[in-house]
Amino acid sequence: MNGEPTHGPTDETVPDTTPETDSATGGTGSAGHRLTAALTVGSRVVVRYRLAEGSESRATDFLGELVARNDDFVVVDTKTERVKLIRADVLAAKDVPPPASRPGRAHERISADDLELLMAKGWQAVDRAGLGDWVLRAASGFTGRANSVLAVGDPSLPLDKAIDYAEKWYADHERPPIFQVHGEQGFVVEDQPLPAALLERGYVVGGDFDSWRRVLVMTGLSAAVPPLTEESVPVTADAELTMDWLMAYNEQRSVVPGVTEAVLTGSEGQLFLSVRDPGTRRIVAVARMAIHPGWAGVFGLWVHPDHRRAGLASTIVSAVAMVARENNMPAIYLQVSGDNEDGVAFWRDLGFTVHHEYTYLARPAG
Ligand SMILES: CC(C)(COP(=O)(O)OP(=O)(O)OC[C@H]1O[C@@H](n2cnc3c(N)ncnc32)[C@H](O)[C@@H]1OP(=O)(O)O)[C@@H](O)C(=O)NCCC(=O)NCCS
């Protein structure tokens, strides 16, 4: 299937992992935000591969999950087989978005499972362990997403044993066990085997927090977000997390020193967007943009209460969408608590719709 090694890997096969953006943007001009994503193990990739001389065609493509890579080989699990490709015969390779699993536009056709897995990459816990397909996550209590079991797929153990295992893992990490389960909008938790088993063990929907009872995953098209205009306030997009940004972020939620920074900067790529008050020069609006093949994620969108309803959040999302459009990311996701009426109203106003929802199950404190 493959030819003899003839040359080393090209730049295309080893993309830069560092976003190049570190600039301010505003008005109608394009700031040229070219981002590159890493080919990381676990990504869905397409690999263009040189075929041996005499083959019918010069090259072929392999689409699947990248399961290993080193200087000599690239290993890909395709739908039908695991292929071990000689690195020197890899002509090009790139990350690709999760597959379409239902009809609809770019932000609608991804499955809820795949979107959950993608979003988890956009907000990485500090400690992670696999349990079959499940992912156990911990980050010193900083956010539910980074401190809960992502219960997607098969845990590879009978359900009760899988829950026992997860509870032990969290006890070892000195954290309470929390499970994140998802379903279509309005799903009934008792109808699913995992939450039903958790309820029997004394877990409750939402644990101690109303905001955890129902979290909406909303999606939209980057092309549908209104563009920046000459009148738009300037938005800064930094590849690096700055102290100023973190201090503004800290106004909306408490941070865990060291851990918050690790989670915020822990994805394959992210940008930190902000708007400053022109008078005081203080940051009054922030958001973090996660970067994926075909998708952008918005986290931590916040506007200072004194500056709301002046279009700042809309301008930040316009900047996110501009970067997304420039980098072949047609779809945008975000999570917003179902009890956050302002937040839901804001995203609906921008044309975003509910893709699915999730809830956390935890034992009440005490
Ligand atoms: C939600 C939030 C980010 C909106 O920021 P903002 O800068 O005030 O939003 P914008 O001025 O760009 O609003 C654009 C439109 O969204 C809608 N909208 C925004 N806030 C709204 C509210 N409180 N109630 C109803 N609609 C609202 C309106 O249609 C608004 O247009 P209008 O002002 O012309 O009526 C801000 O209220 C906030 O920081 N809330 C706390 C954090 C949060 O909830 N973040 C979102 C979680 S994903």
Bound molecules: coenzyme A
CATH superfamily of the largest domain: Gcn5-related N-acetyltransferase (GNAT)
Strand content: 25-35%
CA-atom Rg in angstroms: 22 Å
CATH class of the largest domain: Alpha Beta
- The gross shape turns out to be globular
Helix/strand structural class: alpha+beta
Q: Count of helices?
A: 7
Query: Quick one: biggest sheet?
Result: 13 strands, mixed
CATH architecture of the largest domain: 3-Layer(aba) Sandwich
Helical content stands at 10-25%
The count of DSSP E runs of length 2 or more, i.e. the number of strands, is 18
Element-by-element helix/strand order: EEEEEEHEEEHEHEEEHHEEEHEHE
Low-confidence stretches: 1-24, 26-31
Average of pLDDT: 89
Protein name: N-acetyltransferase domain-containing protein
Biased composition (Low complexity): 11-25
Domain N-acetyltransferase: 223-366
Organism: Terrabacter aeriphilus
Structural description of this entry:
- Residues 223-366 form the N-acetyltransferase domain.
- InterPro entries: Acyl_CoA_acyltransferase, GNAT_dom, Rv0428c-like_C, SH3_Rv0428c.
- Residues 1-35 are annotated as: Disordered.
- This is N-acetyltransferase domain-containing protein.
- Residues 11-25 have a biased composition (Low complexity).
- The chain is α+β, with helices and mostly antiparallel strands and 366 residues long.
- It has three domains: 34-95, SH3 type barrels; 112-213; 219-355, Aminopeptidase.
- The chain has seven helices and 18 strands.
- Strands 1, 7, 8, 9, 10, 11, 12, 13, 14, 15, 16, 17 and 18 form a 13-stranded mixed beta sheet that branches. The protein has a five-stranded antiparallel beta sheet with strand order 5-4-3-2-6, with no helix packed on it.
- It is globular and about 70 Å long.
- The termini are far apart.
- The protein binds coenzyme A.
